[in-house]
Design a protein that fits this description.
Blueprint (H helix, E strand, L loop, with lengths): L4 H11 L3 H10 L4 H19 L6 E8 L3 E9 L2 H4 L2 H17 L4 H6 L1 E2 L2 E2 H12 L3 E10 L5 E7 L5 E9 L7 H18 L11 H17 L4 H17 L18 H12 L3 E10 L3
Length: 290
């Protein structure tokens, strides 16, 4: 049967499928748009299944933050071209809103969540079928403030390939010396974005990781002929040096012309300015391809 261009246009606008696919689906459905949608969905699911094993090295980061609650997402795709696609960005924005509203405890819970009568993982497959590349929701993080003393700051690089959210606790209400606190938060997120810490402080490093590195350093010192008591001291010193670059408080402060040596010196300086304690409680840092 002949299919009007108006019907093809309508189906294309409602589904995002290609012109040829829309035309063939309408012919198969005898001009019934709703049936054609189901045909496209079924064929799209089959196409999407074939793409699920493809590597997703590109993508975008998204953040939604109201200062008391924040979510950060990493949505991966195969190429930078698709990362700029309108439909891909539509999906990312939708997923960010859903995450913000529902406060999922894990990525698995997020993917299993039912939205408009289908799971999030099924929604993503629909977009895979439309866009023609594999898409994966690869990472998800949630932070929540529990008092007026706590606030969440964020940073999203202009190309949306690096994103940071960080929860900070002040001793006094956030409204007290608010401008200074905003300045502290802005520099903190930029420190995390640029210097790539993994842990907040030495105490937050898992004990098994410290012991593993200490053992390696100890054995290396013994192999070099050092006495056991000397090897033990060397291993303890080396471990702290190994973790220094990955611990936020021990990192060099990012501002080149600053007189401050480490980030913990910056925290101390601002604590003195505010005349109150400052604690960095938690953070997420995502970077595409890392």
């Amino acid at each position: 049967m002949a299919v009007s261009m108006d019907l093809i246009k309508q189906l294309r606008e409602e589904t995002g499928a290609g012109v040829a696919d829309c035309k063939n689906a309408l012919i198969e459905a005898n001009g019934d748009v709703e049936k054609a949608k189901k045909i496209l969905l079924a064929k799209g699911a089959a196409k999407a299944a074939k793409k699920l094993d493809r590597t997703t090295k590109e993508g975008l980061i998204s953040i939604k933050n109201d200062c008391k609650k924040a979510v950060i997402l990493e949505l991966g795709c195969e190429t930078d071209f698709v990362a700029r696609n309108e439909k891909f960005n539509e999906l990312l924005n939708n997923l960010t809103d859903i995450a913000f509203q529902n406060e999922f405890k894990s990525l698995d819970e997020f993917l299993s969540f039912e939205y408009n009568s289908r799971k999030i993982e099924e929604l993503i497959k629909e977009y895979i079928a439309i866009i023609g590349e594999n898409i994966k929701l690869t990472r998800y993080g949630l932070l929540k403030a529990n008092s007026n003393n706590q606030v969440i700051f964020d940073y999203l690089h202009f190309n949306k390939r690096i994103g940071v959210i960080v929860l900070v606790e002040f001793e006094k209400d956030f409204e007290v010396n608010k401008d200074l606190k905003i300045e502290f938060g802005s520099k903190t997120v930029f420190q995390i974005a640029s210097m790539k810490p993994v842990y907040i402080d030495v105490n937050s490093i898992p004990a098994n990781e410290i012991e593993e590195q200490k053992k390696l350093a100890y054995e290396q010192a013994l192999n070099e002929g050092k006495p056991e008591h000397i090897a033990l001291k060397i291993s303890e010193g080396k471990v702290m040096k190994i973790f220094e670059d990955s611990v936020l408080m021990e990192q060099s402060f990012f501002e080149e012309n600053s007189k401050l040596n480490k980030f913990k010196d910056f925290v101390k300086e601002f604590s003195n300015k505010l005349n109150e304690k400052i604690n960095v409680l938690s953070f997420f840092r995502y970077e595409i391809g890392k």
